[in-house]
Specification:
It is built from 5 helices and 2 strands, in the order ββααααα. The chain is mostly helical. It has a two-stranded antiparallel ribbon. α1 crosses α4 and α2 packs across α3. It is globular, with a radius of gyration of 15 Å. The termini are far apart.
Length: 114
């Protein structure tokens, strides 16, 4: 569990989403990614991680960027500042990345299983 402070909502509890979501968000985010896509990925990270029913429900058919647009509309419509959305979203994306296995961990498992 992780706690964030997102204005105007205040302190909120976050939980890492499933590893597949973490992987999708982390793998799509880079400095070369277009700004509007990075914004949607930050918004998705916030909405997926925050454990609060006020935030957009997760889609049954996963369309990351489309869902990101819905999340952006929700966050901006509630007065969340762009700077906060980026700052906290980036922190959450980093947190998601920590949960993914590293190359060394994958190699260790392969070596053990052989």
């Amino acid at each position: 569990m992780k706690k964030i402070n997102l204005q105007p909502f205040g302190e909120l509890e976050c939980q890492r989403p499933p590893l597949s979501i973490c992987f999708d968000v982390v793998s799509m985010f880079s400095e070369s990614t277009e700004r509007h896509v990075r914004a949607r990925l930050c918004a998705v990270a916030l909405c997926y991680a925050i454990q609060d029913n006020r935030f957009p429900k997760k889609p049954t058919s996963f369309e990351l960027i489309q869902h990101g647009s819905k999340c952006l509309d929700f966050l901006f419509g509630r007065g969340v500042p762009v700077s906060s959305m980026y700052e906290i979203g980036l922190d959450l994306i980093g947190w998601f990345a920590e949960s993914l296995p590293s190359e060394n961990e994958v190699n260790d498992v392969e070596n053990f299983s052989e």
